[in-house]
Amino acid sequence: MPPTWVLVVAAVFLLAALGFWMYLGVHILAPVPRPPRRSEKQYVTILPDGKRSEPKELPCWLDKWAAERELARRKAARPGTAERNEPSQLKIEEPELFMSVVVPAFNEEERLGGMLEEAVAYLQKAYGGAHEGGQGSDQEKGWEILVVSDGSTDATVERALEFARDHQLSQHPVPRKGPWKEVKEATHIPHGSIRVITLEKNRGKGGAVTHGMRHVRGKYVVFADADGASRFEDLGKLVEGCKAVEDKFGRGVAIGSRAHLVGSEAVVKRSKLRNFLMHSFHLLLRIMTPRATAAIKDTQCGFKLFSRNALPDIIPFMHSEGWIFDVEMLMLAEAANIAMIEVAIGWKEVMGSKLNVIRDSLGMAWGLAILRAAWILGVYSKE
Ligand SMILES: Nc1nc2c(ncn2[C@@H]2O[C@H](COP(=O)(O)OP(=O)(O)O)[C@@H](O)[C@H]2O)c(=O)[nH]1
Ligand SMILES: [Mg+2]
Question: Which UniProt key words apply to this protein (predicted)?
Answer without folding.
Answer: Endoplasmic reticulum, Glycosyltransferase, Membrane, Signal-anchor, Transferase, Transmembrane, Transmembrane helix
